[in-house]
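can u do me a favor
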């Protein structure tokens, strides 16, 4: 989350206000150089090794790296007939990546003739993150998606009373929470496992990936009357360094539970995890 997502200044639900009228709310794009070395691999072969990548921020979307063609193994890319159109960038052409027997269809795209008011995208190639096997940021694994340089995570101890209810049933209550503040997202209250009623938790097979925090595992909540709220809680058994202090702590979606902080019921935020948009 950052400039163009969540409650960021160019996101779909900006939390603040400008002192001028924005010329438009859709199609806001910011294209900037990144100093980070980025590498993408498929079948053990390095497909892209870039020290001059550009990062494209687009309204309501996660940032995407665009790589100069001379830093991409273009000999591993085969042009396809697939195309797509963006009203802000133009017509995209696609490539399939082939390394021996490994094939990633339409895994890369570019804008050979971008629209006049689009960023200078000609000569750059972008990749669907999950269609390559591995990404490295400098020499460390990069997971999930490109990380936004304008995103930040802070994990703070708090003694504020926190209570979580599902269907009127208290599921967790603590004065030992750790609150995680992440750019563009609601505060997430991570609760020690000892302060959560484990008998109400039901293991889930669901897992998700966060580029900043790592791989999350999930719990559902089943109340004594038999009502179940699926995949409403999560934890990080092996978090990345930014989220190390919430290891094994349990958080609940503010959007789907009744969350009390300092005895006050918190308003349920509207995000991509809200019931109406899941």
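np, heres the sequence
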């Amino acid at each position: 989350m950052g400039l163009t997502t969540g409650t960021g200044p160019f996101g779909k639900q900006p939390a603040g206000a400008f002192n001028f009228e924005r010329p438009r709310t859709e199609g806001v794009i910011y294209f900037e150089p990144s100093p980070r070395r980025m590498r993408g691999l498929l079948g053990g072969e390095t497909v892209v090794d870039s020290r001059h990548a550009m990062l494209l921020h687009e309204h309501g979307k996660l940032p995407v790296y665009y790589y100069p063609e001379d830093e991409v193994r273009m000999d591993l890319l085969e042009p396809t007939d697939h195309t797509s159109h963006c009203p802000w960038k133009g017509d995209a052409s696609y490539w399939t990546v082939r390394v021996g027997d490994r094939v990633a269809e339409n895994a890369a795209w570019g804008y050979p003739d971008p629209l006049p008011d689009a960023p200078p995208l000609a000569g750059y190639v972008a990749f669907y993150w999950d269609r390559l096997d591995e990404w490295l940021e400098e020499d460390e694994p990069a997971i999930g998606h490109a990380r936004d340089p304008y995103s930040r995570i802070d994990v703070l101890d708090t003694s504020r009373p926190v209570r979580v209810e599902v269907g009127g049933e208290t599921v967790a209550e603590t004065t030992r929470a750790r609150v995680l503040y992440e750019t563009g997202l609601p505060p997430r209250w991570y609760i020690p496992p000892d302060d959560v009623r484990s008998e109400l938790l039901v293991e889930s097979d669901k897992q998700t990936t966060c580029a900043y925090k790592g791989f999350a595992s999930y719990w559902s909540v089943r109340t004594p009357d038999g009502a179940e709220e699926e995949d409403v809680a999560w934890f990080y058994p092996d978090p990345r360094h930014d989220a190390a202090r919430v290891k094994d702590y349990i958080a609940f979606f503010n959007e789907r539970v009744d969350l009390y902080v300092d005895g006050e019921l918190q308003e349920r935020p509207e995000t991509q995890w809200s019931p109406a948009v899941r």
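The chain has two domains: 29-142, 153-277. hope that helps!!
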